[in-house]
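Hello forum,

I keep getting stuck at the same step: I have a sequence, I want structure tokens, and every attempt I make locally crashes halfway through. Rather than fight my setup again tonight, could one of you with a working pipeline run this one for me? It's a single chain of 376 residues.
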Amino acid sequence: MPPVTTTLAPPPAKIPAVTAPPGRPRPRLQALDGLRLLAALMVCLYHYTGRGGTVSESWHQNPGQIFPTLHRAAVYGCLGVEFFFVISGFVICMSSWGRSLGDFFRSRVARLYPAYWVALVLVTAASVLLPAVVHPVRADEFLVNLTMLQQPMGVPRVLGVCWTLWVEVRFYALFALTVVLPGVTYRRVVLFCSVWTLATVLSTAAGGPWTELVVMPEYAPYFIGGLALYLVHRFGSRPLSWGIVACSWILGMRLTTEGLWHHGSPRNPYVAMAVITLAFAAVAAVAAGWTRRATWSWLTTAGALTYPFYLVHEHLGWFVIRVLHRGWGVPPWATLALTILSMLGLAWLIHRFVEAPFGPRLKTALKGSPQARHPV
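Reply #2:
Ran it on my machine without issues. Output:
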């Protein structure tokens, strides 16, 4: 989920372009798993206590009135999405190294779709049982949602959070076609980051729906920062890598403060900048190896729960809040705790009985038979 010059020249010959430097271990980065769950919980608290709308109907009043202190912090939970994107840049660069385009495609499909399909079914079922929480979609709209292409098709989303998946898919496509296809190297990742940063600035200045669709100027700096931080992790502290990180952090803070006014609740721009800074700093700590002692097994479990939890927590969580608080009269804080725990429990079930068994099978099925891969 980098000794070098400050030019775009290839790394020195003694450091292979597609392998880690000799002697540098590549264990699972469990601290990164913990950061992923932290980002998901930030978004969860925002959806439960930091905003109005449908969740206010579930609580029967604005959550800011029920949780006044928590609400003031939870309004910044929406920035957990940007935190996710920094982590995603790091993880995608790490997981694509040494892989072919086909391997990259299969790994992404097997990772994203099984849990996503189950979440669609669960939320659709909930929409039938309690339409006040989420409105059911038509059959054709549901089928388009299965492809994860509902946004460009103009189809209503079943999962409110899936807009971030469309952002991720576009990032995967850009990175796959320009870096993974020719082969991931230090130089290609640096060039990709540099060109994307320039395109982001130009797109912000010029505007236009097509450039915004492809370049994604409002999200690009977070992915770019994550990519550069993985170069720091793999190749050590090179000035060029850290320079890309610094530039991405600066642009990310600007985009964050500019976008605060689109979320409806008043926010302090300095607090928002602090949250973004902490997000970059947390992933930088992993990149620099400062968290290598964080090897607790529960962090691996936290990482496994993150994606399914993120998918189901919003609409199904509103459903649970409505039932517990309005239907059964459970006190607010108990309702909040039980809702989060129930969503984590559901995420574990999805991981254990869907992702773990069917993800590898889907990945194998996408490879096809040798005859299919090499037709006569």
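The CA atoms of residues 68 and 315 lie 22 Å apart. If your local run keeps crashing, start a new thread with the error log.
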